[in-house]
Each structure stands twice: as structure tokens, then as C-alpha cells.
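Table S2 (text version). Query chain:
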Amino acid sequence: MFREMRRKRQQLSQAECAEIFERGTSGVLALCGDEGYPYAVPISYFYEDGKIYFHSAKSGHKIDAVKREEKASFCVIDQDRIIPEEYTTYFRSAIAFGRIRILEKDEEKRGAIEKLAVKYAPEESDESRSRAIEREWKPLCMLEMKVEHMTGKEAIELVRN
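Corresponding C-alpha cell output:
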């Protein structure tokens, strides 16, 4: 169902892809947007156990797209070092394909937003994070993407080193 990578020597292992998703801080979520146009949006996230979680408002382009089509992809760039003298970049990235859903149950939503808050504000106290979550709770929506396939690639120069 998913295409094989053409340049197999540059392909990352599943474990390396998971590491990219675990350490990344932002990526691009791609959905089927209005009128069949792709809709790709930069977004923060957290990855855990083969699932990627995102925050959102309860309405807007992203939510409309998720309600219309559950299939999505998400890309994270781990490295992109420009090498001017070679007219290239030494890159490493991973992409996940899966199905996305809106978390409906409050306990699922709360668990997901707490983990997202810990990722982005690890030094804050539980009490401080909880207050911040409570302030934003009513307009908050959480999304979960179950990864069906992931692949990653790095520059051939990184493979050689």
C-alpha cells in the first residue's frame, strides 16, 4: 500500500524514525483540505507508542479536514545543515502516514494535553501546567494520529560518514 523508498541506502530504520519523532519539537501535518487541495500546517506535537498527538481549536480548516478525511501524513525534519560549497544540505527527516481522529473523551483529551504540556514546559510544576490547561480547556481539541507506516531518509553524505 505504501511506496518503497527509491534510495534504500539512505533509508532510516524504524527505530531511527521513532527517535526523530520523539526528539522533534515541530513538524508539518498534511491533510486533505478544501476543494481537494492539500492542507499542510506546521504544528507542535508529541509522539508515544506509535501515535502522534496534536492540539487544535475545536473549529477551523484543520478540524474540517480531519472530519472529512481521516488519512493524514506528518513530517519532521531532524537535521538540515546547508553545505554551500556542495550546493546541498545534509538532511535527516521522517514521515509518518496514518489515520487521525478527534479525541472525544475528556480523560483521553486531558492525558494527551498533559503530555504535550510536559514536553514543551518540562520545568513547570504540575500545578502550573494544570492551571494553564484549565484556562484553555473549553476551546481545546486534541487529535491522535495512529501511525500505520513511517519512513525516514538521510543525506547520502551522512550515510558515508
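Notes on Table S2: The chain has a mean pLDDT of 93. The two ends are 33 Å apart (CA to CA).
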